[in-house]
């Protein structure tokens, strides 16, 4: 667990680690495979990476990304889609090859989803796995959209969203009724295979769930508690999110 005075300082530290990883791999002629997250939490990390690209020439030409999740169904052009989020906050402002961007497809027919998820996992494996996975945490203790009840070895799949998660998303959709009931998410097992995992949380609002995730009994009731079983996880917190530890 690393605790920073505020979210901005912590975000810059995480962005620095990502930049260092990209540069080190680039110097060896290797690609960096990043697992990315959405939500308010990583916005300042992406902002810092954009700044480093624009002001310091940090290049993303050798970076391949896989996003954790997407609502289902969801049109990529919708304001609430994670595709829109990722382009607005990161991809539109950096030199990443758009063919190297992967985000679960919210437009699939229901009978195409399983094959898509198997292929998503295969692509990650083919590239040698995720070098670094960035995570936020939902108030249910979800990582990605792995809600309570998710299995520790779960892979990419379609899931049903928890009521609390849909309530938290209501503001973005103009009411809970319009929040999709389903999503496609990488599994806990997919996340676990990453060589490094950074879970970030800011503000008092996250203090209770962070206490459970870091110190609570390991259980599918709080999926983030599974992270306690990995040696490669760092919880990056601001003082407020760490205040119940
Ligand atoms: C959504 C995302 C999660 C994210 C969570 C927390 O549910 N699928 O990946 O961690 O929201 O969001 P925020 O960072 O806005 O608190």
UniProtKB/TrEMBL annotation:
Intact protein stretch covered?
17 to 261 of 639
Q: What's the name of the protein?
A: Glucosamine-6-phosphate deaminase
Q: From which domain of life does this come?
A: Bacteria
- All copies of the Glucosamine/galactosamine-6-phosphate isomerase domain together span 6-228
